[in-house]
Design brief:
CATH architecture of chain A: Beta Barrel
Order of helices and strands of chain B: HHHHHHHHHHHHHEEHHHHH
Number of helices of chain B: 18
Structural class of chain A: mainly beta
Shape of chain B: globular
Helix content of chain B: 55-70%
Shape of chain A: elongated
Distance between the termini of chain A: 59 Å
CATH topology of chain A: Lipocalin
Radius of gyration of chain A: 19 Å
Oligomer: heterodimer
């Protein structure tokens, strides 16, 4: 009986242990489809920069190669993203793979971003 | 084979639930703020566990996170969470339908004719569906828990009533507005109990509360979990946050006015709270006197469904109509309580007016059915007009309450 109680408590404690969130949002993120230079990159935003000093903006590199700032609603480690067809998407983390992603409501697919060390 | 009435009713409501789930749209209020919250919170819970959710500095009480945890267990990838977030509406709809089943049970206990079909007045009401189905919010859950708690309290089953009260307040802190009524009904019953019986009645509720808090206790985030109950209070300090209430009859646009301003050294927020507490205290006073066995010769109100539901409808109206910082959806609990009262009293006019006001306020503010965020031109959706409907129903229900008190005064011998 005691063993069962101890096993149950151990299970509970392991399942309820505290985890620190080490996900680092700030920095430059690159569309994973654009990482292979040999491939043609059709990304809407090949690169995205998250700067905590600009909480309501995302700095994005557009298809014509220009950097621009777009408005975003930033809450709970995620960023709202309005696409060209007025689809309101969300740039949010995958904590397991350490990537960011948003759903492209135009092409009906997810777009994934990986962090790069280049600033 | 004879199928019992209860089973037939369950079958009908189950069919409505399935049809509701089938047609549930992936729609949310403009800006998708709520949808984004549910996605990011479910995603976080999925990876770090429910016990760590308060590290993300979320401001909702614990029980909603259990719903998100359940949802994220079924949709275990971030992609699936994003694409299927509207499936959360199934869970809310389930609790809402269960609460309507309790309306049926009350009507059935009263041997009312057509008790099985009358609750369809609530289920077929767009004001009932708007909050969850279109808006993507979950006010129907704490409303449902409060309704079930009150039902059990009036049926003299305090243990179950307290369990649902704990669920209600742990789901949304606004559920606290039901606390005084439920406490008064329960006190009227518990005062007959011995000390050990009172302890035995309270213990399951305390145990349930501990159980809800357990993951946060184990992760060391209990303080954050407790703070979450009140964290959102005062977050948007405006006279109105979309509720078409009394403030729209006073100011041109209370949504732009800070509720810290005021007159005669009192803020608008304080005025709202004073009127809410004052009027709520007034309507609860006869029930309090009954509990304490005071002035029984002068006034003797009964703790029955009609009287209690009328009092609760008034408290929700006072809360929504006079307080500052109110959102349009905070009137949602009225649908269930006013609906149940309407069926008991066979009084459809007040229920129709309440439903109309709720729908006009929700659609007028969120414009989901309209499809764009341009202001409505028609007078039906103008805040002053909707506020006048709310004022009318408040006066009508208050008139009913005065009649109730008059009838509760024993004739002088």
């Amino acid at each position: 009986m005691h063993t069962k109680i101890i096993a149950f408590l151990a299970l509970l404690l392991t399942n309820c242990q505290s985890h620190q969130n080490t996900f680092q949002l700030e920095g430059k993120w690159v569309d994973m489809a654009c990482m292979d230079a040999a491939k043609n990159c059709n990304s809407r935003y090949p690169e995205i920069v998250i700067d905590f000093e600009m909480p309501n903006s995302l700095i994005v590199l557009d298809q014509s190669g220009n950097w621009k700032s777009i408005w975003t609603n930033n809450r709970w480690q995620s960023y709202s993203l309005k696409l060209e067809n007025d689809y309101e998407s969300l740039l949010f983390p995958n904590y397991k793979t350490n990537t960011l992603q948003y759903y492209d409501g135009v092409n009906k697919e997810f777009v994934y971003y990986q962090k790069t060390l280049n600033r | 084979m004879q199928i019992s009435k209860d089973y037939r009713t369950i079958l009908i409501y189950a069919i409505i639930f399935v049809i509701g789930c089938y047609f549930v749209p992936n729609s949310y209020v403009w800006g998708n703020n709520d949808r984004n919250c549910w996605i990011t919170w479910s995603n976080y819970i999925n990876h770090f566990g429910i016990q760590n959710i308060y590290k993300l500095e979320v401001d909702y009480p614990p029980l909603w996170h259990y719903f998100l945890w359940f949802f994220s267990k079924i949709n275990a990838s971030p992609e699936s969470i994003y694409l299927k977030v509207f499936h959360l509406k199934y869970l809310v709809l389930f609790v809402e339908i269960v609460s309507v089943f309790f309306v049926y049970k009350i009507l059935d206990l009263r041997d009312l004719k057509h008790s099985m079909w009358l609750p369809l007045l609530v289920l077929g009401n767009i004001a009932f569906w708007y909050n969850n189905f279109l808006f993507g919010q979950m006010d129907g859950v704490h409303t449902g828990f409060a309704f079930i708690s009150i039902t059990y309290a009036l049926l003299r089953k305090p243990i179950v009533s307290l369990l649902f009260l704990v669920l209600c307040i742990n789901f949304k802190f606004q559920g606290i507005i039901f606390l005084p009524v439920i406490c008064l009904i329960l006190f009227d019953e518990l005062k007959k109990y011995s000390f050990s019986m009172i302890l035995a009645t309270l213990l399951p509720a305390v145990f349930l509360q501990m159980l809800i808090f357990l993951p946060f206790i184990l992760s060391g985030d209990l303080k954050l979990a407790i703070n979450s109950f009140t964290d959102s209070v005062g977050r948007y300090p405006y006279v109105s946050m979309g509720a078409y209430n009394v403030w729209w009859l006073i100011f041109k646009n209370p949504q732009l006015l800070h509720d810290g301003f005021g007159i005669f050294n009192l803020s608008y927020n304080s005025y709202g709270l004073m009127v809410f507490f004052g009027l709520s205290g007034f309507v609860l006073l006869p029930f309090g006197l009954k509990c304490l066995n005071i002035f029984r010769k002068h006034i003797d109100v009964e703790f029955n469904f009609e009287n209690v539901l009328l009092t609760i409808v008034l408290i929700i109206l006072f809360f929504f109509y006079f307080n500052t910082q109110m959102h349009s959806r905070y009137s949602h609990p009225l649908v269930l309580f006013a609906g149940a009262l309407a069926m008991l009293r066979k009084d459809i006019v007040r229920f129709f007016l309440v439903s109309l006001a709720i729908f006009l306020n929700m659609e007028g503010e969120s414009k989901i059915l309209k499809g764009n965020i341009a202001q409505f031109e028609t007078f039906w959706f103008q805040p002053w007009f909707v506020s006048l409907i709310f004022l009318t129903v408040t006066i009508l229900y208050f008139y009913d309450y005065i009649i109730l008190i008059k009838n509760s005064i024993p004739p002088k011998v």
